[in-house]
Amino acid sequence: MNSNTIIDSRLWISHDLSRTVERNLAFQTNRANLGHLANQLILYDHIVIPTNDFGIVPILINWLGLEPFRVALESGSIAFLYRKDLLGYAGNGGGICTFTINPTSAKPFLWWQEALFGGKMDVAVELQLRNMCPFIPTNERLALTTATIEQTKPVQYDNDFFKQHVMHETYTDIMKDKNLSSFVTHLSGSTDPINLTRLPGLGPNQLKVSRPGSIKDAADLVLRVAEINMDFVLSTTYGDCDLFTCEGAEKILRSKLERSGAPKATLEGLIKLLDLNNIPDVGVGVTSGSISISEILKLREQPDARKFRQWLRNAKPEDARELEKLYVKSLGHSGVFQSLPLRLLRFAILTAIGLLNPGIGTTLSACDNFFVDKWLKGYSPKLFLDRLRKLVIKD
User: Fold this and answer.
1) Does residue 183 sit within a domain?
2) Domain for residue 219, yes or no?
3) How confident is the model over 275-305, as pLDDT tens digits?
């Protein structure tokens, strides 16, 4: 599977129980986020953005413009994954969980709470457009809501699936990895054996919500690993896509295969890094305002840009130098692009072990492991590693 689609968790805006409007606006005004989107538009035909409240929709309208956003929806250049629940860690033995809240007669939902917790995609989109884009007439707003929902897939799994493939996998990932388990112990401030369902710092009625940023305590680390596992689930929800995820996720994947019995020789070849060096940082140009996002949207439709993305779909590490040339060529001959600072673009390419050695697939097929099963069937995504979000693992 060589995907032209990426699920981009960097563009997912995480929320807790506090007011979402300010967090969404802060995300919108941080032009580094727009610069990231610009880079992804060069690299992929289709960008899928996870969301809990569709607050990203008015942000994209603000960034791209109303008509370009509508065109991006119609072409599938932009699509969404709807996450109904929030991921959290509950005290008093609750551990990793998903949660939502309900209104009461005494405390009815405010509009942003309805968008976040109401559970109805069309209502959430319409609320975001009505409150954050009041300049859009009612009939256009309804049409835009319909178009957005047509490009949205809900993330669907039952409680048993979540327990086995997110909760249980996360605990196992940590306990079976010496560095991760040591780090949890260090963050807990205790020399006693750690119970991952009863980490210190949370009372019986307290709940910590998954969030980006630095890892400050043991529950943060557990939630970071749980989000990586959720990212893996998301990548298969949309047809086995490539994935923009936390740096360190590739080591979690290797550990899963090692636990499943893959021979060490096979694991040595599991992850191949594709490094594109000295390529112009388009995101910096957009962030600084020297390049407009409309220029990027036009650029990505040019034949050279399409050719680059086609090559990237099937790229191997040894193709890096040729891809560098194609990338630069796809930007054309504008002096603006040539003056941009250079960057390193790093993908982790996972080999499909069942295809490399059919005998290994027979050995591992009895393992009850969602991720290994996907690889055995040929799923070998590229992981775009986000260096702003790191899982602390010492080699």
Assistant:
1) no
2) no
3) 999 899 999 999 999 999 999 999 999 999 9
